[in-house]
Known about the structure:
The chain folds into two domains: about 10-165, 3-Layer(aba) Sandwich (Rossmann fold); about 205-295. α4 (about 85-95) runs parallel beside α5, α11 runs antiparallel to α14 and α12 packs antiparallel against α13 (about 255-270). The chain has a five-stranded parallel sheet with strand order 2-3-4-1-5, with helices on one face. It is built from 14 helices and five strands. It is globular. The model has no long low-confidence stretch (mean pLDDT about 90). Helix content is about 55%, strand content about 10%. By secondary structure, it is an alpha/beta fold. Zinc ion binds near residues 60, 62 and 65.
Amino acid sequence: MCSKVVGHKKQKDFFKKILTSGRLSHSYIFSGISGIGKKLFARELARSILCSKGSFFSECDCQNCMHVKSGTYADLYEYEGKELKIENIRAISESAGMTGLFGRWKIFILDAVERLSNGANIVAGNAFLKTLEEPGEDCLFILITSKYDTILPTIRSRCSVINFSPLSDNEVKEVAGFYNRSISDEIVNLSAGSIERAFLIDDLKLFNILEDINNKDFKKFAWYILNIDDILVFKAAIEFLYPYALQEYKSSGKGIYIRYGEYILEILRSLNYNVNMDLAKHDFVSKTIEVFGERI
Ligand SMILES: [Zn+2]
């Protein structure tokens, strides 16, 4: 597991100043595309705040840092997006209202916080808003999202937003190196600065789809797509072609690629509902052949 935050210097400098001057707010939203290290940054920030030796984003072996690293620091709470349900929001409110065990900050890191704006979760969202409105003196909330625009406006207005940029090509390579992986330049190029995307493209051999399309080997392309049986893999494959469609539009100026891009977004949206995946796969294959088969 990589624990070094690569890049995001501006954000580090910002928080260093804030911590030095003691002007830390109670709630921040970390916004930026997924797979660039926002959660890791939040954990490292939490560790730096709780460190008893004043380390900042650097190695430290004090007891607090060791507890934070092993996930056993009692006043640090972390929730994944799927855990943001009303019962957990109630538990968060309760913990926020109590005195911290260590007399320092109580820190809550909530990932994929946009989930609180989804239909059934809206009750949880409103309950969370109440906690945000009256934060205890010692409470710090770090909300993480890759979909800032879909967060409840009432929650947004209570938080300072910290924007995170995609990683540079070298940074993507550096992070991959921590995982003992080497990523080709082509994949880095298509990763759009997201390590998550780079690994996905690599793991699923999505790059082969591009090669098949470029070589007009649609038989192989169709075979790959039609044999996918996991909806997440299917989504990743479709999503992978989106920036490619835009790139094709930029170089050729042909509207067909823009329409194909719109088609991709539409099919991705429809897959969030109970769409028959087999039909969607066949439709995607024929549409792709129609668009790229004609290319000279
Ligand atoms: Zn420490």
